[in-house]
Amino acid sequence: MRGKSIKLYIMGEKYKSLKTAELSNWTGKAYIGQRKHVQMLQNIEELATPGIYILISEIEDSYQKKVYIGEADEVNKRIAEHFKQKDWWNDFVIFISKDTNLTKSHVRYLERELYEVALKNKTTIETINGNTPPGSKMPVSECDDMSDFNDNIIFVLNNLGIIDFTKTQTNSQNMDNTGKEREVFYLSVPGAKGESVKEAKLMITEGTYRLLTGSFIRKDHVSSFASHNYAKLRRQLEEEGFFESSESESHFKLCKDIDFKSPSAAAAIVRNSSMNGRKEWKLKNGLSLDEFENRQ
C-alpha cells in the first residue's frame, strides 16, 4: 500500500487553532475544532455546503470516545444547532468537498457508511445516534466513489489521533497480505478449582488485535478490576451479547470477533483483570507477543 500525505493547516490567530486537513489527490477537506469555534464556522463560505460531521466527547474512565455522526445541506448551520441543543460534546470534525461536488445523496450515503463502521468499533467508539441513518440509493459508480471518500475520512481520523477505528472491514481474514496464515496467540483462562484451564485466542490483523470467536472469557469479577477503565467496556460487551454460555460454569464463550487497539485491553476483557497483554499472549511455542513483534 502506498503512503499518503496529510496537509494540516492551522488557521490564523483569529481562529485560535481551528484546523483544516487535506490529503494529496483527494477532493475532501476536514475542519477540526472545538465548541468555541462554532460561531467562527458561520463565516466560512465553503462550510455552507453539504457535508458530514462528527461530534466527539471523551468518556471519563474509559478508553472509548462518544460520537454522534450526522450530515447536513449546510453543515455549519447544523453544527450551530447542535451547539444550542447538545452540551455533551467538546470537539467536532466536518468533512466537505473542496470542489463542492458532494450532494445530499452523497452525504447521506457517507453518514450511513461511517455509522456502520463506527458500530463495529465497540472497543474504541460509543455511537449515540438515536436512529440508524437511512443512507441513500445511488448508481454503483457513485457508491464506489463515496466508499473511497469514506476510506479517506477514516484515514484522516485514525492518523491524526482523533478517533481510533480498529475495524473497517466486515470480513475476518486469516491470511496476511502475503497470503501467509496469521499467527495465533493464546492466553490461559483459569476457572473454578477442579476445572481445566481454558484458552482465549488472538490474531494480529492490519495493526489491530483481534480476539477470536470461541475464546473463553472468565466470568468471575476481580474486585480490583471494578474501577479499571476496561471494566465499563467489559460490561458493555456482555450486555450487547458478545458473550454466550459455555460448557464451563466458570467461563463465557466469545460469539463474535472483537478488534482492540491494545493486546492488554483484549487480555483484560478475557481475564477480568488488568494485565500486560504483550507479555501474556503467547504462541504455542511460548514466544510472547512482545517478542514476536520485536522480530518483525
Automatic annotation (TrEMBL):
Residues 48-125 form the GIY-YIG domain. It comes from the Bacteria. Coiled coil: none annotated. This is GIY-YIG domain-containing protein. It comes from Paenibacillus agaridevorans. The lineage of its organism: Bacteria, Bacillati, Bacillota, Bacilli, Bacillales.
